[in-house]
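Hey everyone, long-time lurker, first post.

I ran two proteins through the pipeline my lab uses and got sequence/structure pairs for each. Pasting them in order. The first:
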Amino acid sequence: DKTGAIVEALSEIAVVIAGSAESTRQACVSFARNMAVAFQIVDDILNFSEASEWTKTCGEDLKEGKLTYVITRAIELLESSHKERLVEILCDADLRKTPAILREGIELVQRSGALADCRSEAESMFHAAWSQFSASIAPSYAKILLHMLCIRTLHLSGDP
């Protein structure tokens, strides 16, 4: 995943510039990789949000024919006829151009249970990564701020 690679590289650069120990470098890079993947999953989830604060168009990934993690999960979870219909919509650019059919595809994803499953997976991934990272990095104001930033970025609730 390109988001993960960029965040991992930035983390690597930061710890090298800071002159951190190898164990700190490993903890930071591992956390950055997992945080980036969790963020990408949440971004895929939000692509099916109709909330006014979300700046993207609902179903934009589906409209573009992108096979995202969330869409893949929806295909796995849907019953046979709905699964086939979602795949048909995803694979046919002409169908995706029709607003009613695109809406049908969005509703299939929303009803599949994929959004809740993926959110749960992203939360679990973040909390596991934070737990491992936190055990390796000494308490500090920066660490508290990082935790708060991650929670906010992932739209999660939870204790540090």
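...and the second, right after it:
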Amino acid sequence: MSAGLESLDHTVQLTHIWINELDEKLGWNNKPRSYRLLRAVLHALRDWLQVSEAADFAAQLPVLLRGVFYEQWRPGTAPVRKRSKAAFLARVQEAFKGDPLILSAREITAVFELISSKITTGEVEDVRNGLPEDVRELWPKPRAEVGAGR
């Protein structure tokens, strides 16, 4: 670890853990692509949530991913007006122009499952409830033992 920079080293390590777990869950063996998916889903999620809920959610992310979450955010435009499942999928798909996702709903669900394993169940429930019902279908309900804030 770098002297005096332990918290930065730690957040980089946590971010790698998230990306590695997602990459393994997807079976892609392509960490840059897994990161791109995680980033795209975080941005879409951020834009679909009310500002206060987005901030509550971001507070549970590792610091580095929190920065990714807030990257280029314009809170005055949140939540987006057309908050449908199709629009959510299209928003994520934008990050994959030239490298399209084949089953984008499955991949997005994998990201949501990862998030559920990393943040508290209560926050997952709050975020899910802040999404339109058809988008919520992509995010399985958390089980009590999942989301222990790891």
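Reply from user beta_strand_b:
Welcome! Quick read of the second one: The mean pLDDT is 91. The radius of gyration is 15 Å.
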